[in-house]
Design a protein that fits this description.
This is HECT-type E3 ubiquitin transferase. One of its GO terms (molecular function) is ubiquitin protein ligase activity. Its EC number is 2.3.2.26. It catalyses: S-ubiquitinyl-[E2 ubiquitin-conjugating enzyme]-L-cysteine + [acceptor protein]-L-lysine = [E2 ubiquitin-conjugating enzyme]-L-cysteine + N(6)-ubiquitinyl-[acceptor protein]-L-lysine. The protein contains 53 helices and 14 strands. The strands form 6 sheets. It has a 4-stranded mixed sheet, covered by helices on one side. A two-stranded antiparallel ribbon has the order 1-2. A two-stranded antiparallel ribbon has the order 3-4. The relative contact order is 0.03. Helix content is 53%, strand content 5%. It is mainly alpha-helical and 1326 residues long.
Length: 1326
């Protein structure tokens, strides 16, 4: 080892001299410490026995005078220091010396240097110095510990005495001639508390002294509410010599309270548990300081305690003053007797930190930060009140302003602690501490499973909220503090529902009294501030902020309902009435702020939406982080948000639409023709309530860049802006909260006839009204400021029409009249056509590629959905007439030109509004698409083909066996059929598509026969899948096979007379069936559900549940309409859901397996995209032909003749004359007789396959010869004269062939023809 040596002799001498001086100083310090310990152990009677003057003033004066930094609080108290004070001073001097020694560089200790790296062995002097330092600090620690133990014992004894003294002094009847009682009465409580606070702050340690702090604070609070005859603790601030000292002491004490509130919030956040009793630590044993060789002898407490349970019968000599008061306690009744109304006895103290609620600390903070709550201030004159208010303001300012040396929003514990153990700790300022505790407490309090009992919850919440709000009020709602309130309080998840659970009465009244909503809206109106708020909170906590703002707005409406009711019918001034204007302005600003927050939230959610993340109960699939606190609060947050679309809130936000002006019928409904929507001119105002020209011209200033001065003074313009802002709010809300979108639209649909009023409003927009402004902006709708109104209207109406039944629409005409529906459909049809047909091609392609990207795309989607519902409803039960759905501006030549070119516009029309194109034109496009897949019809070898052999008595079984597993390409190819007779021999005949047609017709006829059990009929004889189909073996594949055969018939253009129920046709088109489709399946159930829907009484009395019984082959099976539905009763509130679930079960759930198999087979032949251009009724026409009288001349033009017949032949001419003379029914029978279908092809007989033909036959001709095209047969038909015969006309339907004898008379031909078509003869193979 190496030893560091001085370089010169002078340096060495200086080093030795310094060591000697230090050893002398340490010896003097040890002597002083020993003397102090001796003085403490031997207290003289003179100092332990109070003088007469001192005893008359206070028995506790001597004990209270040991404070190291404070003088005696009362003038009668002696100013001399007791031995205990001497001990304290010695302790402080030792600490100071130790600190100075520790801070002074010592030569005997090696220092760390970047250049010196060698270890130096300490010298003997260095070792001796280190030992002395260790001894010094050890003795100092022991002295400090012993002193703290004695001080704690003293505080415990004084607390017990003061509790009884306060109880006695609070009641004059308690003062008797008992000298002990008189002793308690003579105690100056305020001065004694002051001394005790000083003593506690001197030795305070949070781990050991928190219960004492709680008990002391309770006594201070009790003194603040003491009767008039007792001095308040705050009265010490009025004494000139104590004012500064008392204020400094209270600052330190209040910082300690902030510290413990902060610790409680951390404990609550970590455990989520709330103690069952506030500030109630576990009961300890008697507090007796342990003995130590270095401490004076202290006698132990006796085994039998006094009535207080704290005071020993014998006390050390230096506790003589306290012993006098303790003796007086033995003669007093318990303080908790019924006659006493003073403070209850406090729980025993503990050396452990309390795990309960810091209610006392919160009360201390709430009390001393507002002088108006002090009884002393309430009973003082005004000048004194102002002085006390300044003192409390000083406390509040101190607790909200961090110390200069600490970080932002932090308090240093050096201010509170006299010891150095915690001097480095910092805690948040009182506002942040209060909100942290509030958040943790509300989270724990909202879990009833973990917290079955929460005592004093209202007091805790009241104190915490008061501490946070009081600085805001003191600053006169400064913008900075209000924004702090928004970020720290209003972002607490489910703040107001949780407050309502523990603070139901005072909470709402407090926020409404302070008009917090208005101040918050004022602070959030700046767009930049909103961005900062959002990026600070992000998506989930922004949603919490929105929910709490909605709750604040609900409180505002509840307290100011008179200001948001409907305005009078008389014309209003531009600013509205004097009373309603402020409330209306606040509502407008609230809507704007909420909309901006939702816009930011929607953008955030769109970035986070994904199908590979967690499921968010409001956002859907969401990749954002959601903590456990939010997950627990989501049900309550949902309830808060639901208030935004309650009826009273909707009426407040859309208050302008509920004015009497919009009660009158719509201007468009007064016109007799739906074409008035796009007509020019200025219609008159209906009933004189709305001047359309006035409103339109004012709106035009906004829509087309009018001057702001003309807009500012226009009431109608302000009305339109309000409606627009409200619609933007709900549009963004539905787009952000995707899981609540149905609820939002449901509320808008049923909200006090909002939709018809909104329609009347839309009809008044623009210079001329009649929705012209929207039609003009259809090409670039995002430039129209009111386009969001149209989006919300279309979405809500689409939701509504899914619920309305035929009785409401056609008979009751609710909510729209028939004229309104015609005008609405006409407008939407024209609007979509303009948006698609007149848009620039690049813009149109971008729009179709990003259907949900922007406002224009959402408008296209919303208007298209509503228009489709109206068109389907009109197709099933018309409310329009003529060519209502056609667009006159759409020319066939322009459409064909675009179709032959790139075809973007024409294909977009077919995708969105195919009904604007004539039906026959769409059928022609469909047939061309089908023919394009066939290729060259004459080249049969180019198409896939297969041969099917079927027995005539087992057509369905053999066809199913051979074709059930074929793919789409095979079914679209050529299928040749060979019939075999009963002997298994092939039948004669040439398959020129006629044999396959016969096989197809026979297969479909057998498959759709209700007796087979695959299908059944409605009361209107319409077909749909049967539930009993499961009796058939392999019924799912059988349904798939039948679907293929029907698709093959449609693919080949073969018309088959199969009438389907309307709801099943909708399934074939891939559309969902709503309640209104149920009438096509079960009219009786439809009527019963409609009755429940409109039932005026209590629906629960009907005894219905969300379940339905089903009879399956004698076994009753109960099906739940929703999970646990058999235990859920149908009520008035949920009957709409029951109606829709029942309809969905009947049409979709029950028939899901059969329908899916049939549709799958059908779509293997016919692509789904090819059929979307048709409605359900149009698809029925496509399958079975048009239900109209056919054109005889058209059939004649497309007829082929054989056997010598020609168009000019006499018998042929008689034939067409007879057919023309038949009535409509007989002509349909004739068509069925020759083609097996009573309906003509959609596109006419030119598309009949095979072509209709007429052949001349004679009596002796072989009926099994198909067509005689030889020269002999032709000549025989040309030159043979007609003759009367008994033979009837016959037909081969597989070839669409009429075999007509060459009759001699027209009368005979007509009679035979009528007999044949009415008898149904001629269904045989020729």
């Amino acid at each position: 080892m190496f030893q560091l040596k001085p370089k010169t002799a002078t340096a060495k001498d200086d080093f030795v001299e310094r060591q000697r001086q230090e050893r002398q100083a340490r010896a003097q310090q040890r002597s002083a410490a020993s003397a102090t310990a001796s003085d403490t152990a031997a207290v003289t009677p003179a100092t332990s026995t109070p003088t007469a003057a001192t005893q008359s003033a206070s028995p506790l004066a001597a004990a209270g005078s040991r404070s190291p930094s404070l003088t005696t609080p009362t003038p009668t108290t002696t100013s001399s220091l007791t031995p205990q004070a001497t001990t304290a001073q010695a302790t402080w001097s030792m600490r100071s010396s130790a600190a100075s020694v520790a801070d002074t560089p010592r030569p005997d200790v090696p220092t760390t240097s970047t250049t010196t790296k060698k270890y130096v062995q300490p010298s003997v002097d260095m070792q001796i110095g280190s030992a002395l330092v260790i001894q010094k600090w050890t003795r100092m620690f022991l002295v400090k510990r012993n002193l703290a133990q004695k001080e704690r014992l003293t505080i415990d004894l004084q607390l017990a005495v003061l509790q009884q003294a306060l109880a006695v002094q609070s009641h004059a009847d308690s003062a008797t001639n008992n000298p002990n009682v008189a002793t308690l009465v003579a105690i100056p409580i305020a001065a004694t508390l002051h001394a005790m606070v000083a003593r506690l702050l001197f030795i305070y340690h949070p781990k050991h002294d928190y219960p004492r702090l709680v008990a002391l604070c309770k006594l201070i609070l009790a003194s603040m509410d003491a009767p008039n005859n007792l001095p308040s603790f705050a009265a010490l601030a009025l004494q000139r010599d104590l004012t500064v000292v008392w204020i400094r002491q209270m600052k330190r004490l209040l910082v300690l309270c902030v510290y413990h509130v902060h610790q409680a919030s951390l404990q609550l956040a970590a455990s989520g548990l709330i103690a069952t009793e506030a500030d109630a630590p576990p009961a300890p044993s008697a507090v007796v300081p342990p003995t130590h060789p270095m401490s004076p002898a202290i006698p132990k407490a006796p085994s039998t305690p006094t009535p207080t349970g704290l005071l020993p019968s014998s006390l050390p000599s230096y506790f003589n003053a306290t012993r006098v008061a303790a003796a007086a306690l033995s003669t007093l009744p318990p303080a908790s007797s019924p006659s006493s109304t003073g403070p209850p006895p406090q729980p025993p103290l503990s050396s452990n930190t309390a795990a309960g609620l810091p209610l006392t600390s919160l009360r201390m903070l709430a009390t001393f930060t507002d002088a108006s709550t002090w009884k002393l201030s309430q009973q003082s004159p005004e000048p004194l009140k102002q002085s006390l208010a300044k003192i409390s303001s000083t406390f509040l300012q101190h607790l909200n302003q961090p110390q200069p040396q600490t970080a932002s929003a932090k308090l240093t514990l050096d201010v509170a602690f006299s010891s150095s153990n915690f001097s480095c700790e910092t805690i948040p300022v009182i506002r942040t501490t209060a909100v942290a505790f509030l958040s943790s407490f509300l989270q724990a309090a909202s879990s009833p499973k973990r917290n079955p009992h929460i005592p004093s919850a209202a007091l805790v919440i009241s104190a915490a909220m008061t501490l946070f709000i009081r600085p805001i009020i003191a600053s006169r709602f400064s913008r900075e503090l209000v924004l702090s309130f928004v970020l720290e309080v209003l972002s607490i998840p489910a703040l107001f529902p949780r407050l309502a659970a523990v603070w139901p009465a005072e909470g709402p009244a407090l926020f409404e009294k302070l008009e917090f909503l208005q101040h918050v809206i004022n602070a959030l109106e700046d767009s930049q501030t909103l961005k900062i708020i959002f990026y600070t909170l992000e998506g989930n906590y922004t949603l919490c902020l929105i929910a709490n703002l909605v709750s604040l707005f609900g409180m505002h409406l509840a307290n100011a309902r008179a200001l948001v009711v409907d305005t009078p019918a008389a014309p209003a001034s531009p600013s509205g009435s004097a009373k309603s204007a402020p409330a209306r302005a606040l509502t407008d600003r609230f809507v704007e702020v909420l909309h901006q927050l939702l816009v930011h939230d929607k953008s955030y959610v769109r970035k986070k939406q994904t199908s590979h993340a967690n499921f968010h109960p409001l956002f859907g699939w969401f990749s954002g982080v959601t903590d456990a606190t939010l997950s627990e609060a989501f049900p309550q947050i949902t309830l808060q948000l639901q208030n935004l679309w309650k009826r009273d809130v909707l009426r407040a936000i859309f208050a302008d639409l509920f004015k009497p002006a919009f009660d009158s019928p719509s201007p468009s409904s007064s016109s007799s023709s739906s074409s008035s929507i796009v007509s020019e001119g200025t219609p008159t105002a209906p009933g004189g309530t709305i001047k359309k020209q006035s409103l339109g011209s004012k709106l035009s200033a906004i829509a087309h860049g009018g001057s702001s001065s003309s807009i500012a003074n226009t009431a109608d313009s302000l009305l339109c802006m309000r409606v627009r802002d409200a619609c933007q709010l709900y549009e963004t809300l539905a787009g952000t909260l995707v899981k609540l979108k149905a609820e939002v639209l449901n509320a808008l649909s049923y909200a006090s006839d909002l939709l018809p009023r909104l329609w009347r409003f839309l009809s008044t927009v623009g210079p001329t009204g009649n929705l012209k402004v929207f039609l003009d902006s259809a090409v670039v709708p995002e430039k129209e400021p009111f386009i969001s109104i149209l989006v919300v209207f279309c979405d809500a109406c689409s939701h509504l029409f899914l619920v309305l039944d035929d009785e409401e629409i056609y008979n009751m005409q609710k909510p729209f009249s028939m004229t309104d529906l015609a005008n609405l459909s006409k407008f939407l049809n024209q609007f979509l056509f303009t948006m698609i047909w007149q848009s620039p091609l690049p813009r149109l392609e971008a729009l179709l590629a990003a259907i949900d990207a922007d406002t224009t795309a959402r408008l296209l989607r919303s208007s298209h959905r509503l228009l489709t519902l109206l068109y389907e409803r009109d197709a099933r039960r018309p409310f329009t007439s003529g060519d209502h759905w056609l667009i006159p501006e759409l020319k066939s030549s322009a459409f064909d030109s675009d179709w032959r070119g790139k075809g973007s516009r024409s294909r977009a029309l077919l995708r969105y509004i195919p009904h604007c194109i004539p039906f026959r034109r769409r059928v022609d496009l469909f047939r061309k698409q089908i023919d394009a897949t066939k290729g060259d019809r004459d080249d049969a070898d180019a198409r896939p083909s297969m041969l099917v052999r079927v027995r005539r008595n087992a057509v369905l079984d053999d066809g199913f066996r051979q074709l059930c597993n074929t793919n789409g390409d095979t079914m679209r190819g050529v299928i040749r059929v060979k019939f075999t007779n009963a002997q298994g021999l092939d039948e004669a005949g040439i398959d020129q598509d006629g044999v396959f047609k016969e096989f197809l017709e026979e297969t479909i006829k057998q498959a759709f026969d209700p007796n087979l059990g695959l299908f059944r009929t409605t009361s209107s004889n319409l077909l749909y899948p049967s539930l009993t189909s499961r009796l058939q073996e392999d019924h799912v594949k059988l349904f798939e096979f039948v679907g293929r055969m029907l698709g093959k018939a449609l693919y080949e253009g073969i018309v088959v007379e199969v009438p389907f129920a309307h709801f099943f046709l909708s399934k074939l088109l891939g559309r969902h069936n709503g309640f209104d489709e149920l009438s096509s399946l079960d009219p009786d159930l439809y009527k019963n559900l409609a009755f429940i829907k409109r039932y005026d009484g209590d629906v629960e009395d009907l005894g219905l549940t969300f379940s339905v019984d089903e009879d399956l082959f004698g076994t009753v099976v109960t099906n739940d309409l929703k999970p646990g539905g058999r235990a859920v009763s149908v009520t008035t509130a949920n009957r709409i859901l029951y109606v829709h679930l029942m309809a969905d079960f009947r049409m979709n759930t029950q028939l899901r397996v059969q329908s899916q198999a049939f549709i799958h087979g059908f779509r293997t032949v016919i692509p789904d995209s090819s059929l979307r251009i048709f409605s359900s009724s149009e698809l029925q026409k496509l399958i079975s032909g048009d239900s109209v009288d056919f054109d005889v001349s058209d059939l004649r033009r497309h007829t082929t003749y054989y056997g010598g017949y020609h168009d000019s032949h006499r018998t042929v001419q008689w034939l067409w004359e007879c057919v023309a003379e038949l009535d409509t029914k007989e002509r349909c029978l004739f068509l069925k007789f020759v083609t097996s279908c009573s309906k003509p092809p959609i596109l006419g007989f030119a598309h009949l396959h095979p072509t209709f033909s007429v052949r001349c036959v004679e009596d002796q001709e072989d009926e099994h010869v198909i067509i005689d095209e030889s020269i002999t047969g032709t000549l025989r038909g040309l030159f043979s004269g007609g003759r009367d015969t008994n033979r009837l006309p016959t037909a081969s339907t597989c070839f669409n062939l009429l075999k007509l004898p060459n009759y001699k008379k027209k009368k005979t031909l007509k009679e035979k023809l009528r007999y044949a078509i009415n008898a149904g003869a001629g269904f045989e193979l020729s």
